[in-house]
Amino acid sequence: MSGPRPRAGDPTAGPAADDAPAPVVPAGVPGPLPSDGERPSSRDDVTDGRLAATVERLRGEVRAAHAAAEGRALIELAKGVLVERLGCGPAQAARQLAALSDQAGLSRLELAADIINEAARDRVAEVADEFVRTVIDEPDTAGPAASVAVRLRTAESAALSADDTQAVADTLLAHALEPLGAVAVAIWTTGADGSLSLRGHAGFGPDEAARWHYVPPGVTTAARQALTGRRTVWYPSLSAAGIPSIGRARHPDGGRVVVPAGTGGRIHGVLEICWARPLDPQPQAVQRQIEALAELCAHTLEALPDATAPARSLRPAVDGARELAELSDGLYDPALVLTPHLDEEGRLADFRIRHANVHFQDPAGRPRGAVDGALLLEAYPATAGESELFERIERVYATGEPYRARRTRLTALVDQVPLTSLADISISRHAGSVLLIWRVEDESARLASLLQHAQRLGRVGAFEEDALTGDITWHGQLFELFGRRPTEAPVALRDLVGHAHPDDSGTIRRFLKTVLHQRQVGSAAFRMLRRDGVTRHIRVTAEPALGVDGGLEAVRGAYQDISAQHWTEVALTATRDRLVATEEAAEERNRLTLQLQHAIMPPVKPPLDAPDLEVAVRYRPAESESLVGGDWYDAVVLPSKKVLLCVGDVAGHGVEAATGMVVLRNALRGLAVTGAGPGQLLSWLNSVAHHLTAQVTATAVCGIFDPSTRTLRWARAGHLPPVLVRGKEAVDLPLLRGLLLGALAEAEYEEAELRLEPDDIVLMYTDGLVERRDTPVEDSVAQLLTMAQQPSDSLEQRLDQLLARSKSDTDDDTCVVGVQVS
């Protein structure tokens, strides 16, 4: 199959040329000259038309000659198979081929392809057979089934006999890919650095090929996606995938298939096929056919010299390994030279250790000779485990792209005990071998690196001064700290005063006296003035190193930039000062608010001048002065001799709540002079809260007692109802309708009337008397009723008992107003 390629017009080709496939004229080629009714408008147009027709005719003859030569190659190969099997001569084999084709009803070219497939039983034969079976099951598949074998064998024959990769691309497109609808093909090769080079192309313009002749490593293209993944990649539309590639401008919406071309586990290149339109899902037979073409490309890439480099003879993999072994012996790090180990089917199964260099150190303690020549997975089975080292070696061998990694976890089995270490590894491919280099991380180097990072983060720099020679060693961080160039001389401790703020010179002199004269460990903080005008706050710590005779030999120490810490402390001090001032202002504000509240709302109200009615009031402010609330009460005799009784609670705490309380209390007093009932008074008070205050909301209970009839008319605005104590029983009054004050612009409040009997007691209170965080309000009111019905000697004593026994835990203000009819 790889013999010399017959040329057009070869007299030895015989009559088989008649069976060569007819040339296919591409679409868009100019047709024959126009008829007389459509003559060109000028003599030049007629000349150009004839010239174009002549050129196209000559192209067709050239294509026909090439097709005839390729067809003759297949027929000659089939004749050779018959000669070998029948033991006859070439002439008899030609007659036998003709007779068999007549009997089978096939052309000699189709029969020749079948004979070659039967004899070869290779990948092409398998693909052709599968395609024939698929076509029988799927009649709609494009192309006659019998022509598949002819096309594939024709492409194979032409590719194997081609002189360069460009000819391979041309024959693949013409014979195998155009019948599948493809319009262009590109063949890429991979470099040792992971780059891609365009070795052959067909269907793309020369300018496009020139732009894509080389793709540097690391650039993501369609070909690199297949190379990195080592698998076939299908793009239904290249523009939708957003991946750049050759010919994208010409066929932006066309489909692409990119197939790695490799043999024996090594990828030699990439086959990229282009369609002009979006690509629909293809049958399995077509996919197998494309993979067979990629394998054919791999064989040709392996055999053909690189056209972009001087021709060179191919050396066996072992020779390449020998040269690599000599190179590895010059390395200071351990290294292994590996060559591929293939199974019976030619697939990569393992790597053979061809050489371990002179610096090789086996974790299990084995000598070099124990691993030389062994299989990698047998000598180091853990390479296929957690570290995935084997997979990385396999990938480098397949793609040629080097791999570098730091702090890779390597595991080795020592007496079946896994030992793990961290190492920097390097894997690269050279010819047909792989070089594996590793450097186990040194603990002292790692600790030194950590120390350097710690000094950098802590802005610390170490130094050492030799007291005998005067030599000074500075850590690199100190040059930046002092604002000096690394080429300048370090600053000696004795000269430190000249670099410090004048006000800190005494501090530095005391520090130097402690270290250099008293020979004790010393530390000092000072302000350093740099030449660039920057002031740094520095802390220096040093200790003397004494000799055997007690003399000073050296001084070791460190400088630390504490500027950030200093300014943080300054900011914290200023913040603390502002916080203290704010707290003092808040305390003064709360104190004044409490004084204002007590001035308006005394804890005990003086006796009220009302006939047949005793009034008692208790007010208990919040325990915390910062929680001054808005609870209020009032008990006053109106001009009509009726008594106004009310309690209320403004939402919130502080000056705003106290101010709102004053507004509502005084407003209610003024409105009550009109003689209106409690419901109307609360309705007016709601308008005051809504319109005439800054969003004040409050609850309240308002009552008007008429001493002449002993009648109490009352209403509530979102407040708890009053409590009636009659004899030994205490009950809460009905829950009348009434929205809290200030919630809406207009609101109506329900009134109720209660006729009191002698010795009846009515209690009005705010929620600070009963409210608990862990108890429902209903339960707290029930407890209040129980306490209210307890016997007492006077009304004043009863109110004191209620405050004393209250279990409220909300630290809120509390107001209680009690009235008793005599």
Automatic annotation (TrEMBL):
Annotated PAC domain residues: 522-574
Biased composition (Basic and acidic residues): 36-48
Family annotation (Pfam families): ANTAR (PF03861), GAF_2 (PF13185), PAS_3 (PF08447), SpoIIE (PF07228)
Region (Disordered): 1-48
Keywords of the record: Hydrolase, Transcription, Transcription regulation
Domain ANTAR span(s) in chain numbering: 55-116
Biased composition annotated in UniProt, kind: Low complexity: 1-30
GO molecular function: phosphatase activity; RNA binding
The UniProt record lists the keyword Hydrolase: yes
Keyword Membrane: no
UniProt cross-references to SUPFAM superfamilies, sorted A to Z: GAF domain-like, PP2C-like, PYP-like sensor domain (PAS domain)
PANTHER family in alphabetical order: STAGE II SPORULATION PROTEIN E, STAGE II SPORULATION PROTEIN E-RELATED
Name of the protein in its database record: Serine phosphatase RsbU, regulator of sigma subunit
Native source species: Streptomyces venezuelae (strain ATCC 10712 / CBS 650.69 / DSM 40230 / JCM 4526 / NBRC 13096 / PD 04745)
Lineage, top ranks: Bacteria, Bacillati, Actinomycetota, Actinomycetes, Kitasatosporales
